[in-house]
Amino acid sequence: MGKYILALDQGTTSSRAILFDCEQNILGISQKEFTQIYPREGWVEHDAMEIWSSQYAVMMEVVAQSGVDAADIAGIGITNQRETTILWDRRTGRPIHNAIVWQCRRTADIVDSLLADGLGDHIKDATGLVPDAYFSGTKIKWILDHVEGARERARAGDILFGTVDTWLLWKLTGGEVHVTDYTNASRTMLYDIHKLDWDQKMLDALDIPRSMLPEVHSSSEIYGHTEIQGVRVPIAGIAGDQQAALFGQTCFQPGDAKNTYGTGCFLLMNTGDAPCRSENGLITTIAIGLNGTVQYALEGSVFVGGAVIQWLRDEMRFLTESRDAEYYAQKVNDTGGVYLVPAFTGLGAPYWDMYARGCIVGLTRGTKREHIIRAAQESIAYQVADLVRAMEKDTGLPLSQLKADGGASRDRFLMQFQSDILGRSVRRPMIRETTALGCAYLAGLATGVWRDTDEIQHLWVCDTTYEPKMEAPRREALLGDWHRAVERSRGWAK
Ligand SMILES: Nc1ncnc2c1ncn2[C@@H]1O[C@H](COP(=O)(O)OP(=O)(O)O)[C@@H](O)[C@H]1O
Ligand SMILES: O=P(O)(O)OC[C@H](O)CO
Fold it and tell me: Which of this chain's residues are annotated to bind ADP (predicted)?
């Protein structure tokens, strides 16, 4: 049996490859950022070939740099930015359009027409989702509508659809395997999460031929092989990145929850084998498909989390490095009454407003750059607090602690403020690469590296715990003003 697992983590801003050994030590990380394409206001695209080439490059690089023999790699796990939609020609392997990224708002009017046709309840009942341009279904329709001849070619079986996992799997296996896993299928707004089948009513409503959709498999099995250094290595785990992080944080029991602070913020709670329907703006999704069954999760998705720090750095030029945000935030005692609502691509959970746009309120003549930087960081924590409150209302259970991970969880100011504004402990694990670790676990379970989840459960080790220090009245006052600021951002682009 191989001693190592290779995790491919294809995120919104970068492609990463991480090599783990069977004691979950990281032997090497290779990472490559790729181009973000903004063709119009509110539109976001990636070049699908650049996704593939950057992911392939980091995979080969990490193996070469670590000096590991490819024959010792037990398996490869794939985890990916979810919902991002790629259509390609089965014969040439070339995409027929840029990937439409999960953040892209171009299909808001298609969602409006689904709602006008009375499909809102059906979408919620069958797919567990809130009708929104976030999910893949309307993005597929947009490409089929706008690329000449695409729908006819799709009907003839010449065009394939995939989320990023499916695209990478297809490329890695030389075009032999067209498969996704349950977690990714549940993000398309085309998949019935109860019957575990594509939903014909949604396919008809969006005029999407079933023949272009991938087969849906479990999250841990051997899907196919790829060649590294002349060795055939099995691809043995697939999960959307947020579900992979839930798994990597060992949230295996109903009630276990984590929040990932990446480009966006994603709070997921395992609800076991029973799907929990939200009455408070969250979505129901598949947490994992394992051992012939699926587990469900309740999810709150926030579109702009760590990305607001990137925006301060790249567009506002307030920062040279993302990591400087924490230093500047602590140069002032508070935001001076400033609130920043980063609704750059609308608002996700629990508001679901495709037409909201970002705003900064409470500016005075005394407002400094540091106040705005701090307000941006606090906005990440406020958005997560809104998700936690919605989740507690839905489940009737107070969250005892929050497990945190993702790039922006390095920011200690943010983690402390998060704990303060929640009034809960926030715990960060020793291994921050929980997304990659989650898909490594899935690949390792399918190839015998780990026996079962009981064995994995004991591997989670806490690095830092943040305890709340803020008084409840101050917390409520801050949250009250945050909600007033959110109201200012709503419906702006309508
Ligand atoms: N030290 C830091 N402080 C604050 N934000 C950070 C820090 N490091 C990274 N980030 C933010 O985290 C995000 C990247 O996190 P990552 O988990 O790599 O995201 P993704 O998987 O979405 O590409 C970026 O938006 C970046 O601005
Ligand atoms: O790339 P990330 O880590 O921001 O994750 C993106 C999510 O999967 C979108 O649903």
Answer: 12, 16, 263, 306, 407
Which residue's CA is the nearest one to ligand 1's atom 18? 407
d(CA 378, CA 322) in angstroms, rounded, equals: 15
The pairing of strands 293-302 and 283-290 is antiparallel
* Cβ of 464 below 6 Å from ligand 1: no
Q: Comparing C-alpha atoms, which of 159, 110, 140, 136 is closest to residue 208?
A: 140
Mutate to test the pocket of ligand 2, among 83, 242, 304 (most ligand atoms within 8 A of CB): 242
Residues near 493 by beta carbon (within 8 Å), at least 6 away in sequence: 42, 346, 355, 356, 357
As for the ipTM of the complex, it is: 0.96
Ligand 1 neighbour 305 (Cβ under 6 A): no
pLDDT at 432: 85
In tens, the pLDDT along 316-348 reads: 999 999 999 999 999 999 999 999 999 998 999
Q: What is the pLDDT of residues 236-286, one digit of tens each?
A: 999 999 999 999 999 998 888 999 999 899 999 999 998 988 999 999 999
* Among the listed residues 371, 380, 286, 290, the one whose alpha carbon sits nearest the alpha carbon of residue 332: 371
- Predicted confidence at residue 42, as pLDDT, reads 86
- Collect all residues with Cβ–Cβ distance below 8 Å to 160 and sequence separation of at least 6: 87, 88, 89, 90, 170, 178, 212, 214
Atom of ligand 1 nearest to the CA of 241: 21
For the cut 70, the answer to whether the pLDDT of residue 4 exceeds it is yes
- Which ligand 2 atom is the nearest neighbour of the CA of 435? 3
Phi first, then psi: give them for residue 332, nearest 5 degrees: -125, 155
Strands 215-217 and 179-181: parallel
- DSSP secondary structure string, 434-480? HHHHHHHHHHHHHTTSS--HHHHHTT--EEEEE---S-HHHHHHHHH
Instruction: Give yes or no for residue 401 having a pLDDT over 90.
Output: no
CB-ligand 2 contact for 419 (6 Å cutoff): no
Buried b (16+ CB within 10 A) or exposed e, 206-229: bebbeebbbebbbbbbebbbbebe
Residues 404, 408, 410, 412: is their CA dihedral positive or negative?
negative
**Distance between CA atoms of residues 260 and 408, nearest Å:** 8
pTM (two decimals): 0.93
Where b means 16+ CB within 10 Å and e means fewer, 125-134 reads ebbbbbbbbb
Distance CA 378, CA 361 (A): 14
Cβ distance 422 to 403 under 8 Å? Answer: no
Element (H, E) at 400: none
